[in-house]
Amino acid sequence: MTRIVHLVDDTPPESLGRYLDFLTGSSEMGFGRHMVVPVLKNRAGGLSIEADVIVSHLPISWRGMPGLMSLRARHTGTPMVHVEHEYCEGFAEANVAGKRRFKTLLASAYSMFDRVVAVSPSQAAWFLRLGVVSKGELTVIPPSVDLASFRAVPAPGGPARVFGAIGPFQTQTGFDLLVRAFRRVEDPSLRLRLIGDGPERETLETFAKGDPRIEIRPFGANRAAALAGVDAVAMPSRWEPFGLGALEARAAGRTVIAAHVDGLADQAFEGVLPVPSPTPEAWAAAIRTLARLPFDQERAPGHEARTASKWSEFLAMIRREQAALGTAPLDEQGCA
């Protein structure tokens, strides 16, 4: 069985942790033996790994480049794959001043790997436009988690009355925009529930002050339970390479309204309702519209199997390439 080692920062984002739990623990991923190895920040170069495939989920930075170079040098005969969870077009537009230097960073880092995995078609298309990876070295595999607990959440009883926004209170998630938009909606029967915590909590409390319809709650470990308490989910993210929260909300039968950016834009093809403009006026209009719509949301059928199938096909391709070079594991040489 193929040994796949996943490298992850020792303090990974919570959403990445859920994805790794799926990769390592789901029966859907039983075609390989998956192991997660935590890596101290920028210290990948000291690792010596016995694996058939190394999959990096590590953040890319200039400080981490020496470690990546050393990791590559230590494992010259082992296929190395990088999954890009952080960078996307929306991120670059919002955060990157030196575009040329940033492009050089990505191109240099990705050249250390045999393959790069994008988490959404939009992210992959941006990579190709930017010219940081070739089409032949790029694969798209949307992430997944075990969605069984989300599909078990009862469907809402009717049109949305309680809108939820779940996630960290930070610039990326755009909850400040959502609060300003909700305050423009006159309907006294509607509610907005913000669930999470983070550096922008005080700002959100200030924006919400005086509107009893807006509630701020701490985040609990049970995301399915949080979704059970709302009728619809709003994701006004300023950037989002994939948008795992939208997938979970859809699996819970909740209609999602989301910013038309990055991976969230791709999910518009699967039932997410896009908000075309990042303005309070556009978001207020979307909330008013959704409050009038009947419930109609499929529960992301078959998503876990599709993610597992893409990983299986991807790793089978790598095994075939190894066999052609005579470097595949002995029990797999000659296997398709």
UniProtKB/TrEMBL annotation:
InterPro entries hit by this protein:
Glyco_trans_4-like_N, Glycosyltransferase_grp1
What would you give as a GO molecular function for this chain, any one?
hexosyltransferase activity
Question: What are the UniProt keywords, alphabetically?
Answer: Transferase
Provide the Glycosyltransferase subfamily 4-like N-terminal domain boundaries.
50-148
What's this protein's name?
Glycosyl transferase
